Amino acid sequence: MSERRKTKPVFVGDVQVGGDAPIVVQSMTATDTADVESTLNQIAELADLGCEIVRVAVPDKEAAAAMPEIVKRTAVPLMADIHFDYRWAMAALKANVHGLRLNPGNIRDPDKVRMIVKEAKARETPIRIGVNAGSLPPLKALADDEMPPPMHERMVDAALWELNILEEMGFDSLKISLKAFDVPTMVQAYRDLSARLDEAGTPYPFHLGITEAGLPRAGSVRSAIGIGILLSEGIGDTIRVSLAADPKEEPPVCWDILASLNLRQRGPTIVACPTCGRIEIELIPLANKVEAHFQKLGKPITVAVMGCVVNGPGEAKMADLGIAGGKGRGVIFRKGEIVKTVNEDEFLSAIIEEGDKVIAEMENGNSDIADADFPPGDAPDPVIPIQEVPSSTSER
Amino acid sequence: MSERRKTKPVFVGDVQVGGDAPIVVQSMTATDTADVESTLNQIAELADLGCEIVRVAVPDKEAAAAMPEIVKRTAVPLMADIHFDYRWAMAALKANVHGLRLNPGNIRDPDKVRMIVKEAKARETPIRIGVNAGSLPPLKALADDEMPPPMHERMVDAALWELNILEEMGFDSLKISLKAFDVPTMVQAYRDLSARLDEAGTPYPFHLGITEAGLPRAGSVRSAIGIGILLSEGIGDTIRVSLAADPKEEPPVCWDILASLNLRQRGPTIVACPTCGRIEIELIPLANKVEAHFQKLGKPITVAVMGCVVNGPGEAKMADLGIAGGKGRGVIFRKGEIVKTVNEDEFLSAIIEEGDKVIAEMENGNSDIADADFPPGDAPDPVIPIQEVPSSTSER
Questions:
Q1: What would the pLDDT profile of B175-186 be if each residue is shown by its tens digit?
Q2: Closest CB to A257 among B187, B221, B260
Q3: Cα-based angle B192, B193, B196 (whole degrees, multiple of 5)
């Protein structure tokens, strides 16, 4: 894990993006924005799932007309997504929206861009420049023997061009995204732009995402790799996972990404073995029940649910709470110590009971550590108790 | 994407791992190995999903007794997973298993290890050393003021120690894994060991995995990040995703990881927009049907299913086949060219029809390119046709 890039923070409403703020989780509504109640319901549902900023498309007059009411009643700060028409940007700003996603090049008329920038500046409303491999500006004419530049270069060039329009108008409350479906293209674009901006002394924060990542399974994997590689290099200040699915599927994947890199944790992290021919307990239903229980409590606890003697005790010791099951009995570990041995029918109740104790400790003893996000930088290196090689099970 | 690490290949049956072989996909059965029919059924199901090597646990006499029949009738090469007891290793070898996963330190008695190595060598059967953060050898005693080494160092030390036992017996048909649940720990362990081995001139291939990654969604994300970071650095020769779920859920995630990095593709890759307030067609059901259709055909085709004018045409042009829908009509693209415009009720049939043409072209014109795995090294940089900024839609 590299140290996090030092970026110039912007504020989307009261949510800081960049600087020393935690990586912010975002999503986008899929309702018709003109339908105020449906849109507000979806925003609230996304917020309940840990979505800290929500984007809404404002593609027409009806959507623009709905924005004042939506902004007034929203659960979290909103970004208005604007394409082509400056009027919807102006309407969103006047509705007190918390940020705009807008590419000035796509508004085209410099006078109209100037109007938007003047209004955004007066209101201290940030703008995200959102470059997308699927909608780049036209290439300049190429000579006969000239190859077009690679996609990631075209994306960086587009971002710098868009940026330049805003900077020349004295606007710098900015964040930038460089989305592509192709992971290597997306990763290289963000790497190159971060180097260019840091060198220029304008380290704007980055919104990371894979665009049109696809259906939930493949789209989550693709997003996790692209976003994960960059976050592990210290690049990225806010993330969005774009799935062809109910938007409610997106925030949990964002949180899974952040938890996987020890950047932030929301709700439980479940360590659970894949089961194999060594399995001796009904593990998968138990793991699901354990996750559901601690998800409901919303506490950042790590629970290991392990089904055999090979890795079970080791993993169970490393987690906040663990069970290593075998032959109808299970050993419960709390913070690395064995606390009891129980029968299989008591596994869940014992985990819940010991979980309450772990959570109580978190909240009394050192709540500021337990509930806080992990600090940026190197992953914590848990001090592991000395482990014994498990004794032979050849008698089985 | 870094160039792939040059490793010393081993053969698990007829499947090459390492060297210039494609990254191999693996999984593990969760049946009782002693139940021959269930185990063979699960092996066949995994093979149908693109699993190229399957591991089976051999934890006891009954499992060992089932191995001859399982090996005789298996659909793909098998690795026997052995812990603690040399007898099951000997039995698996004598059953003609294609490889062993075995840590000599965990067998302990050097004479027994020697017996296994002699037999494996005579049969040219490779061994995977599988180090796992949850079952490391005990730490040596520490002085009062001495801190235990970080986990990734302990894992590398354990691998080198296990390796040394086998190398001293003249055995080098090896691959190595260094699994942990913690992504930064796992990534650092593989990076460090690859540097150590390459320097020593013994570049054994690596089996990558996150251990006990958890339930499907979070486990897939965690595995994708850990495995994805390493593959993007050129590290890794075979991969396994460990989920607390039906093992059939694992190979598709492996393939999603490989496709995301343009390393290999199996079946379709679906580019699909997340839908937003701009959506104008019923996109998600269509994307699911398109995926199901091309999944059934099993062809490596990239299909974009896009719902609006902003990124739709751009993404649809870049894919092998694409549809950019809007207002009840959709434009179909084939290999970057518009081929027709259809009504919403014809979307699926038009995609299927044009898909047949793309697949026919793949199989006639240049089947060796279309069906082959992507070459290792840099991601291909598709030459994108010059794109126009879409015309204003402000009249909507």
A1: 999 999 999 999
A2: B221
A3: 90
